[in-house]
Amino acid sequence: MRIVTTLPSATEIVAALGLEPVGVSHECDYPPQVRNIPSITRSRIDADASSEDIDAQVLEAAAEDGVYDIDVETLDALEPELVVTQGMCDVCAVDEVVIERALEGIAAEPTVLTTDPHTVNDVLEDVKRVGRAAGVESRAETVVTGLEARLETVREQTVDIPSAERPRVAIFDWTEPAMIAGHWTAELVSWAGGSYGLADVGERSRPREWEEIVAYDPEIIVIAPCGFDLEQTARNCSDLTGRDGWSELSAVREGRVWALDGNHYCNRPGPRLVDTCEVLAQIIQPDRFDGESDETIAVPLADLSGRLEA
Q: Where are the domains of the chain?
């Protein structure tokens, strides 16, 4: 089947099912070989700018022609039979409205599958939905069973931890303005042995008043901006570390502040959310989860800053 994906998580789902799309978005980068697949999207945003500048660019673009363009000519030439897009966020990736408009200009009449996940179960159901649409339903069930087994392995090691003994966790998915990660994040933190008191399961990510975060006084902080790798996170972390009261937070005083690759993991609703859960478990409950952490995914903020300076 000729499949086009318009966001990285959809590309990862398709790849996990043993399929290869004929077209992807400009942001799709995993598995690595998808970088050689034709891209059908372009962004009007300078992704290398600071978090504050990106936020301003997004607001300006959203008020005008939108954040993304579709290369309709390339899309037409690919003759897609299935297009996997999303309806969750028109800032993070091309959404269904933009795709529907682009499809009016091509000869093919593909099926459009829109993902809109807000919980881990939603993500797993999307794997099954894509599998059914692509004609590999049995394979999708096998993939989901494997992902669920890995999540259960984490849950089994934390289920006995009383609420009072679970550290307060805050995960930032943007630094200026300061935004607390929502959607599936509360589930991942809970399964990993922490307490996530700033957002409920399924709640959208949104800006928060700094005073609210200071009052919560997180014991563990994970900085994982949407779309940022570790290096770009390091360049923007002063948005948080320079704020009044930062040095008095429990997580900072105890040296439990981490940077995590939010682009590939925490903020990408595909199969690697399971990897995110496993990494968070090592961060939140290191005594229960032995083994070396993967420094390409997450590192203590102090170590990251030092590594870049070197």
A: 3-119, 164-309
Fold matches, 3-119 and 164-309 = yes
Give me the sign of the Cα torsion angle 124, 224, 203, 94.
negative
Unique residue bearing structure tokens 């999303």 = 86
Where does 164-309 sit in CATH, by number? 3.40.50.1980
* pLDDT tens digits for range 152-210: 999 999 999 999 999 999 999 999 999 999 999 999 999 999 999 999 999 999 899 99
3-119 under CATH 1.10.10.1590, yes or no:
no
**Tens digits of residue pLDDT in 39-74:** 998 876 666 778 788 777 766 655 566 667 889 999
Q: What is the pTM of this model?
A: 0.91
